[in-house]
Amino acid sequence: xxxxxxxxxxxxxxxxxxxxxxxxxxxxxxxxxxxxxxxxxxxxxxxxxxxxxxxxxxxxxxxxxxxxxxxxxxxxxxxxxxxxxxxxxxxxx
Length: 93
Prior knowledge:
Elements: E1 2-5, E2 11-14, H1 18-37, H2 46-62, H3 77-85
């Protein structure tokens, strides 16, 4: 069992498997450099910023635990969705 501190500073005990611990440690190793590398990534990409904003708004409206299916049916995408969900998924209104 380990101790984890979340961004607001509360501490909680969690049990971690070896693979989860290794993944967390690997992420922690590169997180700061990765954030610095991508700090200005969206500066000249208004469409990307707008899409991220739209997804953030979906999250706010749908709320935790909610589900949103967002898809574009191209080629065999409909077949993939049917297999994934076990039933026909239609984007038609």
